[in-house]
Amino acid sequence: MVADASWSRLPGWQLRLIAGLFPVGLTPGSSVSIQVLVEVLVSVELSFNEYGAGPPVVILHGLFGSKRNWSSIARQLAPDFHVYAVDLRNHGESPWHEQHDYPAMAADVAHLIEQQVGQPVTLIGHSMGGKVAMYLALTRPELVERLVVVDIPPARSRGTPISYVHAMQAVPLAQFSRRSEVEQALAETIADPVVRGFLVTNIISGPEGLAWTVNLDAIERQFDTILDWPATAAGRQFSGPTLFIRGNRSAFIKPEHEAIIRQLFPAAMTESVIGAGHWVHAEQPAAFLELVQRFLAG
Hints:
This protein is an alpha/beta fold. About 30% of the residues lie in helices and about 20% in strands. The chain is built from 11 helices and 12 strands. It has helices spanning about 70-75, 100-115, 130-140, 160-170, 180-185, 195-200, 215-220, 225, 260-265, 280-285, 285-295, and strands spanning about 1-5, 15-20, 35-40, 50, 55-60, 80-85, 120-125, 145-150, 205, 210, 240-245, 270-275. Helix 2 (about 100-115) packs across helix 3. The longest helix is centred in the middle third of the chain and has 16 residues, at about 100-115. Residues about 1-25 and about 30-40 have low confidence and may be disordered.
């Protein structure tokens, strides 16, 4: 939308510039009126679980994941850290919203850090959550002390096939009463039982029957955006300590991504976990945890 307004009239809103630049010297609170093309980002209040005490660590899951997927890792970090395992928007117990892109998701996490944590954090993000973590570190570096990115590059990447979304949408949940029945129905289009088992963790049972905890319609509409990497990250850098962890059986982080990783994250290190695919933390949890703990102790 086109807005002709002063910054002082927009408390509590976050603005993403689509075109145009701020005039030199313009800051929040300025009474100077300008006309820019902007998109308004509305933060949602994210659901999270807390573990332990100590320096703060915030964990962000991937597409169709949830904070529950990270409970084991969070508990093992809890003796030394105050861990926040988060449900991103349109997932788990967090609110649904029609907007599902990286600036919006990063704004949600920034709001959580500012309101719930109150100091810079170590940010750990896997897959889609890794892109959220990277975008936040690049755009709000004052909120991020250390960054751990799990098996995703700062680039357009392959991801969950959209056919999974369509398969989930096509399941007549009203006809079923158990997750196992939904998993069986998904077998007609999704052959891998591990994938089916993962997807049905996004089902809850309530007074009106089974329901998806993920906003499938919003994810379907913005699926290409989820696979992509925001152009608004160009020209930025996060110079803090950064660790990329990849599975050696995963094809997400490729040799051609090294240049963009070094450009955006000049202090980045990359480690490979033997015997792991894309879900590094689930497939090789001990090796993953050792890398994270060593990095956080450095």
